[in-house]
Design brief:
Elements: H1 4-27, E1 36-43, E2 49-51, E3 56-57, E4 66-72, H2 79-94, E5 99-105, H3 113-123, E6 128-131, H4 134-143, E7 148-151, E8 159-162, E9 166-169, E10 174-179, H5 185-193
Parallel strand pairs: 4-5, 5-6
Antiparallel strand pairs: 1-10, 2-3, 2-6, 4-9, 7-8, 9-10
This protein binds nickel (II) ion.
Nickel (II) ion binds at residues 72-73, 76, 79-80, 162.
Length: 198
């Protein structure tokens, strides 16, 4: 029994080492092959948005899970429908409760929470949506490094130029990475599958 204290000491050292390794892994940026991970995740500035259910969309709606975010508008003729369909397909395929798909409308004049809710439900009712006042939306997207420009048209026929990138937000509500268009679904699915589980 004289060796017992030594064995315990070794076990303790292994346990400490393992704990350290787990913390290191949690803090490390995700490995992305089809996107670009930020070397250091960047906290998202405070924001004020409304979800598609009409309730405030807050920081805690981002915390505790991964988020793949896309900005667009429901009147978009091409990019948005294809991208939102991709989000629905990814959500179906990956089936991870700790990964949400968020569509933020950058056209709050036409896209009320109810309009967004009906739009997303057409693809997949499990997708999340949000928007806000024009200044709040602009501030939020600027904080993510995205931008949009409204192209004046006739009456209600204007369009909005918007980013085509996905933003990956980590479970601490920090910007973790970007996926630029064109989006390769298989590669994106592999990257999202590889995200550490929460
Ligand atoms: Ni669009």
């Amino acid at each position: 029994m004289r060796h017992a204290p030594v064995a315990i000491a070794i076990l303790a050292a292994v346990a400490v080492g393992a704990g350290f390794a787990l913390r290191e892994r949690a803090a490390a940026p995700p490995t992305l092959r089809s996107g670009t991970a930020l070397p250091v995740p960047a906290p998202i500035a405070d924001f004020s948005l409304t979800g598609q259910d009409g309730q405030p969309f807050r920081r805690d709606d981002l915390e505790g899970r991964w988020t793949l975010l896309f900005t667009g508008f429901t009147h978009c003729p091409d990019v948005c429908p294809l991208t939102v369909a991709s989000m629905a397909e990814l959500r179906r395929r990956l089936d991870r409760a700790d990964l949400q798909f968020l569509f933020v409308s950058v056209d709050p004049e036409r896209d009320s929470p109810e309009v967004i809710r009906r739009y997303l439900a057409h693809f997949d009712p499990g997708l999340r949506g949000a928007t806000g006042t024009r200044p709040d939306v602009d501030r939020f997207t600027a904080g993510l490094g995205l931008a949009q420009v409204v192209n004046p048209g006739v009456g209600d026929e204007y369009t909005v130029d918007h980013s085509t990138a996905f933003v990956l937000i980590d479970p601490e509500a920090r910007r973790a990475g970007y996926f630029s268009a064109p989006h390769a679904l298989e590669a994106l699915a592999a990257d999202l599958t590889g995200l550490p589980r929460r």
